[in-house]
Amino acid sequence: MSIAVHAEHDLGGANTLGLPCVAERFAAPRHVGELREALALAGDRGWPLTLLGGGSNLILPARLPGLVVQPALERWWLEPMGEGVRVHAEAGVDWHRLVMALAERGLWGTENLALIPGHCGAAPIQNIGAYGVELGDVLEAVHLLHRDDGREAVLGAAECAFGYRDSVFKRALADRVVITRLVLRLSPTPRPRLAYGDLAGRVGEAPTPLAVAEAVCAVRREKLPDPAELGNAGSFFHNPVVTADTAARLLHEAPTMPHFPQPDGRVKLAAGWLIDQCGLKGWREGHFGVHDRQALVLVHFGGGSAEELLAFADRVAEQVSSRFGVMLQREPRLAG
Ligand SMILES: Cc1cc2nc3c(=O)[nH]c(=O)nc-3n(C[C@H](O)[C@H](O)[C@H](O)COP(=O)(O)OP(=O)(O)OC[C@H]3O[C@@H](n4cnc5c(N)ncnc54)[C@H](O)[C@@H]3O)c2cc1C
Questions:
Q1: Contact 55, 11 (CB under 8 A)
Q2: 235 is catalytic
Q3: Could you tell me if 250 and 324 are in contact, meaning their C-beta atoms sit under 8 angstroms apart?
Q4: Whether the predicted pLDDT of 274 surpasses 90
Q5: pLDDT: is 21 or 164 the higher one?
Q6: In 198-238, where do the E strands start and end?
Q7: Does residue 95 register a pLDDT over 70?
Q8: Which residue's CA is minimally distant from atom 27 of ligand 1?
Q9: Is the pLDDT of residue 1 over 70?
């Protein structure tokens, strides 16, 4: 056995919400062999297993029993492919650093996803998305290990069943696999996607991927709190998708409500707008609050716990429900 297992490992600095947490045991495997060892160890001893990436979409309890595994496979490389390029990125690679490195090389595809925190291994779980682009638009395949027996498999993009903040990894394969590597398909041929926000106004006539990525970073820095300064997990709620009848009822009451018709006839609403309309932007109670610039983001001022955060989030969701009759669903996952 070569994998190092640390006892009583502090994860307080390993989650962007800044919640205090101690892992009973912790391992950071550096290659697939070590990862397989960690899975076997947890299986043999009957330890509950928690997978951790950058901790930017997780709510951690005060104590995580069993074994926390944070894949530290950190290589990435390019493979020329006809007109385009394949990018192989292991699970522990920092997503934003990868995006910037690809943009610097003049490769199009991931630039709109700049400054999303976290590791590559977690990116397919909720099919990360921003500024009109989702991971599923550029992903070719996912390499993974099955948690029960350590066998390797490769899933093509179609098998990942990507949807809005959704994938097979939240459904049929939830808690059953560890993602070890992403394969992305990028292109040197210009294909800027600038329809969202004021991106078009921030880049010149002939933008480069780097110019777009930098514009995305600038917009995000203006709108979103930096987790290094104020604990948060980005958007705390999914944008709700409601029936056409519900949307029509709400639009009758609030004609300016942002709404986005979906191909299936339903309508996506902006959760941040709904929260804002309840007068909750900037609302603080105890150690948590609704961010004063972006109502979709709940922030941790320090000293709070996961239970307190969940109770605070419930109060926000209850107010939206009683005012609009729309139920908000939480985006970050509860660990343990
Ligand atoms: C400031 C801020 C802004 C954000 N903006 C966006 C945004 O614009 N768009 C967006 O989509 N998201 C956004 N997020 C959410 C978050 O960054 C993404 O969901 C990200 O992909 C999470 O990566 P992570 O490595 O931090 O995952 P973690 O939070 O560590 O884990 C998330 C889930 O993935 C599982 N997991 C982790 N690694 C693996 C693996 N190798 N194999 C299998 N399962 C694994 C974990 O068990 C957990 O269930 C934002 C978060 C913050 C804090």
A1: yes
A2: yes
A3: yes
A4: yes
A5: 21
A6: 231-235
A7: yes
A8: 53
A9: no
Q: Is 331 a catalytic residue?
A: yes
Check 165, 167, 214, 305 and give the catalytic one: 165
- Give catalytic status of residue 333 as yes or no: no
CA distance 135 to 49: 26
Query: Do residues 175 and 250 share a domain?
Result: no
**Interior/surface letters 153-164, b for 16+ CB within 10 angstroms, e for the rest:** eebebeebbbee
Within-domain flag for 181: yes
Q: Cα separations (Å) of 195 from 79, 191, 192, 234, 303? A: 30, 12, 9, 22, 40
Taking alpha carbons only, the member of 22, 155, 43 closest to residue 35 is 43
Q: What is the span of the domain harbouring residue 106?
A: 76-223
- The pLDDT mean for the chain works out to 97
CA 315 to ligand 1 center in whole angstroms: 24
pLDDT tens digits, 46-78? 999 999 999 999 999 999 999 999 999 999 999
- Residue with the nearest Cα to atom 45 of ligand 1? 122
Q: Taking 80 as the threshold, does the pLDDT of residue 301 lie above it?
A: yes
- Lookup result for tokens 């900037």: 282
Q: What is the CATH number of the domain that holds 57?
A: 3.30.43.10
